[in-house]
Amino acid sequence: MSSINSNIISVNCGREISREEYLAKLKSELAELFERREYMLTYEKSTLLAAYTKWIGSFKYEEFSLQVTIKRQQRKAQIIQAKINRNEPIVIEAVEQQLNEEFAEYERLLQEQLEQIKAATDYLESPVLSDEDAKELKQIYRILVKRLHPDWNPDLTQQERDLFVRVQAAYKTANLQELMNILLMIDAKEPAALQNTDIEEEIAQYEKSIADMKERIEKLEFTFPFTMREMLVDEEQLKRQQEEIQANISKLREDEKKWMAYVAAMSMSRSGIGEA
What is the pLDDT of residues 192-212, one digit of tens each? Predict the structure, then answer.
């Protein structure tokens, strides 16, 4: 909490500072919170998703693939049994065609997961910036956010808004050179101060913005993939998660063998077998 008295502010630690100094402190805090949220959404989210997809998603893909195979065999058994009950010839090619149509969406999902795993692997194996370059990347990004972020600068031109889209894309891909080029393209001046003649009102606006931004960040922390952050950096947790999925995969493989054997036996039964 802070109290406003004339031109002096008493901050939490009991130290008294001028309203102008306090406002500058609020602006700096909000800038840091903006940077934190943008970092989470633009860079960290992609990194966590890629790590989760590579180290957990590959096992999840195999698990899902086996579940689809078993479901398909179960459905195949239903179709064959229905034909047997009706004393109809069993044309395996026709059954498979029907299954292909019914399971098209499952196949699309499997292909999508494969593409995600490949993209995650490519992302994680892409060149990594040095610590020095990574620090410079964040510094330049912070400057550009302050100058081009629509929330900070509501009067941006369309060209400037398009430029900010480029900034986000460059930051997401850790393209330091692109950020440096964009920085050279814009005016080196700080963004204009808020058009507010009442400094107390301006302080209140910044305090509210800070509270709102903290709430947004807190909500992000409880959403996927940020909830996976601890597990992905903890080798023991990651190993346990992988082992749990692998145990289920082993069980699914046994179920797959049983269903395939069952369907094969049905297909070779004497009840109305036919060939294409």
Answer: 444 444 778 778 877 888 888
What pTM did the predictor assign? 0.59
CB atoms within 10 A of CB 28: 10
What is d(CA 153, CA 233) in angstroms, rounded to the nearest whole number? Answer: 37
Contacts of residue 210, defined as CB under 8 A and 6 or more positions apart, other chains included, come to 26, 29, 30, 33
Residue 1 has pLDDT above 70, yes or no: no
Tokens of 196: 């507010």
CA pair distance 165, 149, nearest whole angstrom: 9
Look up residue 227 and give its DSSP letter: G
**9 with 3: CB under 8 angstroms?**
yes
Gap between the Cα atoms of 121 and 237, Å rounded: 21
- pLDDT digit string (tens) for 218-233? 998 999 889 998 998 8
Question: What's the rounded mean pLDDT across residues 132-156?
Answer: 80
- Sequence-separated (6 or more) residues with CB below 8 Å from residue 67: 252
What residue type is 156 in one-letter code? Answer: L
Mean pLDDT of 106-117: 92
Residue pair 167/145 in contact (Cβ under 8 Å)? The answer is yes
- CB burial string 196-221: b at 16+ within 10 A, e below: eeebeebbeebbebbeebeeeeeebe
Per-residue confidence (pLDDT) for residue 79, from 0 to 100: 94
